[in-house]
Amino acid sequence: MLRSRFVGAVSAHTGSRMEPVCQLSDEQWQLIADLFPQKEYSPTGGRPTADARACVEGILWVLTSGARWRDLPPHFPSPSTCWRRHAAWSRAGIWQQAWARLLRILQRRGELKLDEQMADGTFSSAKKGVNAWVKLNGAKGPSSWYWPMVMVCRSAF
Q: Which of 90, 96, 114, 128 lies at 20 to 30 Å from 149 by C-alpha?
């Protein structure tokens, strides 16, 4: 059993609720931590806000595992908190800034290999046998990561 940096977390394989692996190293987090605002405690009381890094780790776990938000392991903040932070940070452009910053650092170090790029087709929203001329259901919009990633990838260099 492996111990996580999350308090009381141990490796357990129970479907999609398995023990999360840290997505960001401490070095990577230090490079982007200033982009993710941490709210101060309210002097009037109320529930303390969740840690920004724990929310980032939870969001990255959901995005990399393909799990539903409600399947977020209990070692992270609540699924609704992580979802709200993801939506707010997406609207504010924070993810693009973090991605661009990490890419610039990799490029300066010579660790970014632009000739070895690939696309992961598991995130494509294509349906088998769909006719190209058929209008798609309006309820299904583009995923939240696609356009921000396109803009970052085009403007990063």
A: 128
